[in-house]
Amino acid sequence: MKNSKRIIYGLLLTAVAFLSANFAGRKILLNSQSLPPSFITHSAMLILSIVLICCLRKYVNYKIAWPKFKKTLKPMLLGFLAVVIINALLVGLGKVFGIEAGSHFVFDVMTPLQVFLFICILASVAEEVLFRGFLQNILKPLQAGGIKFCKRYISVPVMIAALAFSLAHLILIASGAGAYFIFRTLAFTFVLGLIAGYYQEKYDNNAYAILVHMSGNLLGLITALLATINV
Fold it and tell me: What whole-number distance in Å separates Cα of residue 40 and Cα of residue 159?
């Protein structure tokens, strides 16, 4: 398959899987207090991602294995710090210009346990299998191209997957989120995607991307816990 077709098919199929999963999450309603609507969305996303990887296994060299603990510490720390630092900078910038930062609506409808199970774990796994496991891997032949940043080589597949992952969060517009909150989300998800993609490519293992994503989402769990304390 030509590289141009890889980009087109990769992005198109990723978009179809992402939008189909979100459509399923809106249409399939669960009458359960323990399972939030995002459970359907991310479960469908994970299933569709696995189907894509299996159907296109000739072009998607997907690998996942349990990583060595010592090698996971730096990626996870970077993932967490990236989200914390970028959020802090943008919230501070918003205060300077008098812009309300806002918070994600899930913190109002989910308990800390639900945030841990369905955001830190399920969402991290589902989104990483789709954006890094499928999209980045189908673009792997393009990794000869890229740029150096802070003595690290960031390849084209890593950048494309990170940008697609970031732009996918424009779906927040449908939830009524404010423009500045969406901008902030796009910024830190892009950086988080770069870190996740870099370590997946470095170790050729989707597990590293998942762990980076989980560490980034850990900030959401901390926010949910602090909200319960304030109440």
Answer: 28
Report how far residue 134's alpha carbon sits from residue 19's, in angstroms, rounded to the nearest whole number: 15
What's phi and psi for 178, nearest 5 deg? -70, 160
List per-block mean pLDDT (blocks of 10 residues) for the chain, which spans 231 residues: 91 98 92 86 97 96 94 95 90 85 68 87 97 98 91 95 97 85 92 97 97 90 66 48
**CA distances for 176 relative to 103, 187, 191, 221, 230, angstroms:** 12, 18, 24, 22, 25
Q: Can you tell me the distance from the alpha carbon of 8 to that of 133, in angstroms, rounded to the nearest whole number?
A: 17
CA separation for the pair 187, 200 (Å, rounded): 20
Name the helix (H) or strand (E) containing 42: helix 38-55
Phi first, then psi, for residue 65 (nearest 5°) are: -155, 155
Length of the chain in terms of residues written: 231
3-state class (DSSP) for residue 154? strand
Buried b (16+ CB within 10 A) or exposed e, 113-143: ebbbbbbbbbbbbbbbbbbbbbbbbbbbebe
Q: Do residues 42 and 126 touch, judged by C-beta distance below 8 A?
A: yes
SS3 content of the chain, % helix, strand, coil (to 5): 75, 5, 20
d(CA 35, CA 42) in angstroms, rounded, equals: 12
* Domain boundaries of the chain, sorted by first residue: 3-230
CA distance 87 to 11: 27
A 10 A CB-CB count for 22 gives 19
